[in-house]
Design goal:
single chain, about 325 residues, alpha/beta, Rossmann fold, 2 domains, 6-stranded parallel β-sheet, 3-stranded parallel β-sheet, about 35% helix, globular
Length: about 325
């Protein structure tokens, strides 16, 4: 992203037939409707991504920062490290390194690419279908699912929308299910960083640019910075905040359950989020199904000057199936 390497990356992927997996912070460096886009590492459906990497004969880590990893790197596949800095950490082992401007390095590799494409566009499309099935696993019929919230908001959002996300299970779903078309239109923290990032990031994005801004936050992370809504209201920012409301710190609950521990200190007190939003100078609404969410979003991007806060009461079955 920082080297402006998107065009070189796309051309190399097409010429060599190389599927491109990105880290969450690099979403959009290759438009996610590109035929060689292959998903986001360590987000929802992560097992499908790791299976793809494990089956490859070479991984080129172009500008990839290992701080983005949530799952430890356990692959035996050879790695070609391409970055502006050497691979001193060796979080992933790389016997060969190309150190310098990433765009220039990819163009140099492109000049030496020959032979037929390693993967066909059809094979990558089949992989993406498997990945989509992976992040939709655990779907609860008749309930509002996290994946539905992400895809519904994405469908309603105009071109050029900047999406920010907080930290937690919802972030891992949004990191995969949100479709990014350009770099820096998705503001997301590395790995599993501190909660509370999403709303302040959205306010910053709305102040610094004229385009629409959407914040996707869990109820835990939202609660840590919710009063910043007053700043957004005072500045007349028409950003949209969607709160994934499940009354828990779900990511922590899943870890505790996996370790066989009783659930401890993971409950989030239910707050009347629409009333809270109204008290801070915003519009607020609660939804419990897709049609309600679509209705709430129908006027969300029509030149509003008050923030809109949507509380989405979700089912967490998909989270349990993912992680």
């Amino acid at each position: 992203v920082r080297c402006g390497a998107g065009a070189a990356l796309a051309e190399l992927a097409e010429r060599a037939g190389m599927p491109v997996v990105v880290g969450a912070m690099a979403k959009g460096v290759l438009s996610e409707d590109h035929p060689y886009f292959a998903g986001v590492l360590d987000m929802a459906g992560h097992r499908v991504i790791w299976d793809l990497l494990a089956a490859s004969d070479l991984i080129v880590t172009a500008g990839f920062d290992a701080v983005e990893l949530i799952t430890p790197w356990r692959l035996a596949v050879p790695v070609l490290h391409v970055d502006t800095t050497p691979n001193t950490d060796q979080v992933y082992p790389a016997a060969t390194e190309v150190v310098g401007n990433v765009a220039a390095a990819l163009s140099w590799l492109l000049a030496s690419a020959d032979g037929a494409p390693r993967w066909s566009e059809g094979e990558v499309a089949a992989h993406r279908a498997a990945l989509r099935a992976g992040w939709q696993a655990g779907y609860a019929p008749g309930r509002l699912n996290p994946s539905e919230v992400v895809t519904t908001v994405r469908s309603a959002s105009p071109a050029g929308t900047v999406m920010t996300t907080d930290v937690g299970s919802h972030k891992i779903m949004a990191g995969q299910a949100w479709t990014a078309f350009a770099p820096r239109e998705t503001l997301i923290t590395n790995g599993l960083s501190a909660m509370g990032f999403g709303l302040p990031a959205a306010i910053g994005a709305a102040v610094s640019g004229p385009g629409p801004v959407v914040c996707l936050a869990g109820d835990g992370g939202f609660g840590m910075t919710a009063t910043e809504l007053a700043v957004a209201a005072r500045l007349g920012l028409g950003l949209v905040v969607v709160v994934f409301s499940d009354g828990s710190l779900n990511r922590i609950e899943l870890h505790q359950a996996a370790m066989g521990y009783p659930l401890t200190a993971t409950a989030v007190d239910r707050v009347d989020i629409p009333v809270l939003a109204e008290s801070l100078g915003c519009d607020g609404v609660r939804v419990e199904n897709v049609s309600g969410l679509e209705k709430a979003l129908s006027t969300a991007f029509s030149g509003r000057v008050r923030p809109l806060v949507i509380e989405a009461r979700i089912d967490t079955s998909q989270y349990a199936a993912q992680y």
